[in-house]
Design a protein that fits this description.
Layout lengths: L1 H13 L3 H8 L13 E2 L8 E7 L2 E6 L3 E5 L7 E4 L6 E6 L5 E5 L3 E5 L7 E2 L10 E8 L2 E6 L4 E4 L7 E2 L11 E7 L2 E6 L4 E4 L7 E3 L7 E6 L5 E5 L4 E4 L7 E2 L8 E6 L5 E5 L3 E5 L7 E4 L6 E7 L2 E6 L2 E5 L1 H11 L2
Antiparallel strand pairs: 1-5, 2-3, 3-4, 4-5, 6-7, 7-8, 8-9, 10-11, 11-12, 12-13, 14-15, 15-16, 16-17, 18-19, 19-20, 20-21, 22-23, 23-24, 24-25, 26-27, 27-28
Length: about 325
């Protein structure tokens, strides 16, 4: 019971849309499996979405009740496609325009070979009944999936089969939020200030010293070689020496940051709860705080066709980067 209690506290404390996620999984165990590839009528603002990725020029978002949303026109129009699972999907990654993997609650793993038009369920009994929180493509057919209580799985055949790996030690039980390639190494962020590094593709991990004890929810590398780690209560940290030293980047909010990306124009955009948008024009050395008008939380983002596509509590939100530019200019006056 201790683990389940702690997991619930993490969800509520982090503001990870716990109410929506719970709603999404109501009755999932008793519901029959859906048929993959069936297009259903779901409004883009009436579905909770947890992650989004590009499959070539196609946008693929994943979320509640195992549904995916796909767009072939840079987010202007969408169609909802069912997968064989009924639990919330939390992460999605593609190796190319066709082959991708999505993961989620209840050890859910699905894969596609046609860019998200149809999906196949991949049983992962070693992960049951826990939640997978993310998936990363490390290049080619190499994917890793990770999540609650230190679960970490490795696939070298594009998600068809998975091997469980140990992180740090058998006692490692921190919820893993993201695994990120950094040069030839991997960087892991997790709850309770847990950071780790692997220099052999995830076979072994070394504990890193964290600049704080709170939970991390995401990380990103910048074009100039810096590394940002961020998460609970608006905490953002930056390193230029892969974690030997860290600098805290001030951000005037206690809302949690959930995802981030460096945009085509070089700016860095971090997104989070209650419509949080944090923008940097200097490689993450400083951040300017903005808020989306609706005030709904964001959990992921992608950029295509000259605009940013956000996913979260209110489904799909399209953001013109010019809006951020105008807000930044106004803030500087």
């Amino acid at each position: 019971m201790k683990h389940w209690a702690r997991w619930a506290c993490v969800l509520v404390g982090a503001g990870l849309m716990s109410v929506s996620a719970s709603r999404a999984d109501e009755g999932a165990k008793s519901a029959p499996p859906k048929t993959s590839g069936i297009v259903v009528d779901i409004r883009t603002d009436r579905i909770v979405l947890m992650d989004i990725a590009l499959a070539g020029n196609r946008l693929v978002a994943v979320g509640e009740r195992g549904f995916t949303m796909v767009s072939d026109d840079s987010g202007k129009s969408w169609k909802a496609i069912g997968t064989p699972v009924n639990r919330t999907l939390t992460g999605v990654a593609f190796k190319d325009a066709k082959v991708g993997v999505a993961v989620g609650h209840g050890a859910s793993v699905v894969r596609t070979e046609d860019g998200g038009t149809t999906w196949t369920h991949v049983p992962l009994p070693e992960a049951e009944p826990e939640s997978l929180l993310g998936v990363t493509n490390l290049g080619g057919d190499h994917f890793v999936a990770y999540g609650a209580f230190g679960m970490y799985f490795d696939s070298t055949d594009a998600g068809r089969t998975w091997t469980k790996r140990m992180v740090e030690s058998e006692d490692f039980d921190r919820h893993i939020s993201q695994v990120l390639p950094v040069g030839s190494s991997l960087f892991m962020v997790a709850e309770s200030g847990a950071l780790a590094r692997s220099d052999d593709g995830g076979m072994t991990w070394t504990t890193m010293t964290s600049p704080y004890e709170g939970s991390y929810f995401a990380a990103l590398t910048t074009r100039d070689g810096a590394l940002l780690a961020f998460g609970m209560r608006g905490n953002v940290f930056r390193t230029t020496d892969f974690g030997t030293t860290w600098q805290q980047i001030p951000l005037d909010t206690k809302q949690s940051l959930m995802s981030g990306k460096q945009l085509a124009d070089g700016r860095i955009l971090l997104v989070g709860n209650t419509g949080l948008l944090a923008v940097s024009s200097d490689d993450g050395q400083t951040l300017e705080l903005h808020w989306a008008p609706k005030g709904k939380g964001f959990s992921g983002l992608a950029e295509t066709g000259g605009q940013v596509v956000l996913v979260g509590e209110s489904g799909i939100t399209l953001l013109d980067p010019a809006w951020l530019t105008a807000k930044t200019a106004a803030a500087g006056k």
